[in-house]
């Protein structure tokens, strides 16, 4: 992941991010980059692939109509052009296919689960915090912008959560869904555009005693899913999308697609290392404004589709460059 915001140079997560970025150059060949660029290119009405000139013309026109910041603005290393160019490989499917091919081989040969993106501690916090939030909402207690999420543990909470259907987009090795399953959720689906990631995720779930978790190959930007979900989770997928050269436009495509996957009254929980809580809230507000502007006469589009509900306040924070920040932000949005 590029440029983890407000992170000390000597932190373990920062060193890990740099190691991943540097390894991308070895994993992705020129041919792979060409194939990846073609497979990720913007499509007109999700149909035929546009040429580069038309794609960038469309991108410029789309960006002129919304208040959405470029991915470099979300990164603390935006002045380091070489690092930015290398890390942008994480925006290509060919990078992830190569990475998960390696992890799948390691699993088959050594039983390794693979990388836990952002770390196991963050994954556990996301899972337990999400359980508390969903439990509160199930019982009609929607947190305000000030109060922390406070849920009553017990049989009632677990019974309510068992009825929630959950989607993890960009699931990777699927370990987040395993943590979610441990919290009492049972109707679980993970999707990823890498077939190798899905193979790894299914293998790990079967080994670890979670054969009921469903895993499907699906690209969130051009999703084939027709079902809606009460809880949609994203741990790093929006970050990766933003690292593609066409990241700003693809982020808009992301919001259009995700808005069709979250059920009315459902939750979207995003965990990011490239955007702060305030930046994610601003991006959602930009999506709401763009949606309203595209159908000014449609009363159903006038009200915001997503609204901020809460965010994790327990991640460690520190001072850097005169600002207080955290290396990770987890934010929840409620769909009307």
TrEMBL record:
Q: Does the keyword ATP-binding apply?
A: no
Which segments constitute the Methyltransferase domain?
A: 163-288
Q: Which of the seven top EC classes does this enzyme belong to?
A: transferase
Sorted alphabetically, which Pfam families does this protein's record hold?
Methyltransf_31
Superkingdom of this protein's organism: Eukaryota
Cellular component terms per the entry's GO annotation: cytoplasm
Q: In terms of one coarse class, where is the protein primarily found? A: cytoplasm
Single GO MF descriptor: protein-lysine N-methyltransferase activity
| EC number(s) on file | 2.1.1.-
Q: Which BP terms does GO give this entry?
A: methylation
**Which keywords does the record carry?**
Cytoplasm, Methyltransferase, S-adenosyl-L-methionine, Transferase
Q: Where in the cell is it found?
A: Cytoplasm
So what does this one do? S-adenosyl-L-methionine-dependent protein-lysine N-methyltransferase that methylates elongation factor 1-alpha.
For this chain, the family text in UniProt reads: Belongs to the class I-like SAM-binding methyltransferase superfamily. EFM4 family.
PANTHER family in the record? EEF1A LYSINE METHYLTRANSFERASE 2 (PTHR12843:SF5), PROTEIN-LYSINE N-METHYLTRANSFERASE METTL10 (PTHR12843)
Annotated protein name in UniProt: Protein-lysine N-methyltransferase LOC101495747
Q: What is the lineage of its organism?
A: Eukaryota, Viridiplantae, Streptophyta, Embryophyta, Tracheophyta
């Amino acid at each position: 992941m590029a440029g983890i915001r407000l992170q000390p140079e000597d932190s373990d997560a920062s060193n890990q991010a740099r190691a991943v970025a540097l390894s991308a150059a070895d994993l992705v060949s020129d041919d792979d980059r060409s194939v990846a660029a073609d497979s990720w290119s913007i499509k007109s009405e999700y149909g035929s692939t546009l040429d580069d000139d038309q794609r960038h013309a469309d991108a410029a026109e789309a960006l002129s109509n919304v208040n959405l910041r470029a991915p470099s603005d979300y990164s603390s290393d935006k002045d380091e052009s070489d690092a930015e160019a290398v890390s942008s490989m994480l925006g290509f499917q060919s990078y992830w296919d190569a990475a998960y091919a390696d992890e799948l081989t390691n699993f088959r040969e050594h039983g390794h689960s693979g990388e836990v993106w952002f770390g196991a501690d963050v994954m556990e916090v996301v899972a337990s915090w999400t359980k508390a939030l969903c439990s509160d909402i199930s019982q009609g207690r929607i947190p305000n912008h000030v109060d922390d999420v406070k849920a009553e543990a017990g049989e009632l909470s677990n019974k309510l959560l068992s009825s929630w259907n959950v989607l993890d987009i960009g699931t990777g090795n699927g370990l987040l869904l395993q943590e979610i399953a441990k919290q009492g959720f049972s109707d679980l689906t993970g999707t990823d555009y890498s077939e190798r990631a899905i193979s790894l995720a299914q293998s790990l779930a079967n080994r670890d005693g979670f054969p009921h978790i469903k895993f499907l190959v699906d690209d969130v930007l051009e999703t084939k899913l027709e079902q809606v979900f009460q809880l949609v989770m994203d741990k790093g997928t929006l970050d990766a999308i933003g690292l593609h050269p066409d990241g700003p436009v693809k982020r808009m495509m992301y919001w259009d697609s995700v808005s069709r996957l979250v059920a009315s009254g459902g939750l979207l929980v995003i965990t990011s290392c490239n955007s702060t809580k305030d930046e994610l809230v601003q991006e959602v507000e930009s999506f709401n404004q763009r949606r309203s502007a595209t159908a000014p006469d449609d009363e159903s589009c006038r009200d915001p589709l997503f609204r901020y509900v809460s965010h994790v306040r327990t991640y460690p924070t520190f001072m850097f460059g005169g600002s207080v920040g955290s290396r990770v932000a987890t934010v929840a949005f409620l769909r009307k």
